[in-house]
Amino acid sequence: MGLCCRWGTIFESESEVGMIDVIKRILDKNNEISDYEIIQTKTSSSQLFYVLDKLETNRVTKNVDTNVIIYHDHDEYRGSSSFIVNASDDENSISLKIDSAIAIAKKINNPKFVLADKTDDKLVTFDSISDANYNDACVKIADAIFSAKHDENGWINSVEIFVTNIEKHFVNSNGVDHTFNKSYLEVEIIPTYSNNNEEIELYLDFKMLELDYDLITKKVEDVLKQAKLRSNAVNIEDYMKHCPVVIQDEMLAMIMENFATDISYQSVFNKANHYQINDKICDYDLNITVGPYAKNAVYSYPFDNHGLVIKDVDIIKNGIVCANYGDFIYGQYLKQDKINGNASIIKVDTTNRCKITYPYLEICNFSSPQLEEATGYFGGEIRLAIYHDKDGNMIPVTNFSISGNIYHDIKEARFADTDVTLDYYKGPKYIIFDHMSVN
Q: What is the pTM of this model?
């Protein structure tokens, strides 16, 4: 039965609606199960695949995944194990899977913890794609992609478009029962540019929580311009290596995620963290908040994998660590009074902003960005960068690498005065480092 609501299209069938009730009934009858969690995810997707501008495949998929985690207490320990319930399972096969999971859980000796309790806290609500007909949305997205302007030597080699609805249902043995829906798009594009009979390809993959056809077109035009620049790129010269390095997109999000992960409950419990509460990361007012939602951030979720309702929490304020957050179990191990849960979105703000001044080296495309949490190393090989000289002229460069130590370099970092939203990050669009190694 198709239902139209502000979240998108929900698909249901009688067997899917009853599956969780069947599982709960079997679990509740088993005296060897101390607690349990059930996470059911229903996914419906419309997909279009193009080669050049020709539609090759039009596909619709539907899938239901039901994951069950059981907990067994023995002596002072709590063990756990999980299994998947398939559509073909009946009560007998589910019972056999439970017995197998219990046997495994009996051999695991984790310190005891409790599961989330019911709460009156409200789930955050947010808008996502609301087109009832996802295939029509895919076609409009394709129109936006192929309307991107480019010259005769550039083209779009292939396009994959996905518009997906996810309905997630979480229940546990303490009576927690949450559901939510969201719909989002994902686009994968291979732009190509020919220069002197040599074809240069790049790759673009982006996701959006809401439809913005003009923004889609702009993203495609930007990557087509990058493909043209890449085709004209030259090896970097020594004089270009001694100027500020400007980083954006995936690496920028990775940097900020690293600081959030470093002060998570799990990192602190495992003694893998660099920072404690009240430690100063930098002298300027770097502020990081973790939470359930940012507008158009695809990874927005109102509750976490243990059913905790997520709220905004400031974890770094004015450059100083002010709170930990993260997994419910590790929060208990650290004896936290109020456990914040595993937030999915990182929001960054600072007044340490500036106009980017010439000359500078803008990193556009990594071969594979890298960041090592333990050492702080970050960088990687560069597929495309642009050297902006003192007069504002642009020279595309390639075949070099950059590196730095984020725990040191963050102290003198500056940020651009424009913002961006990525899959799980909202904040400044560019971060500027003055002393990175360029090789």
A: 0.92
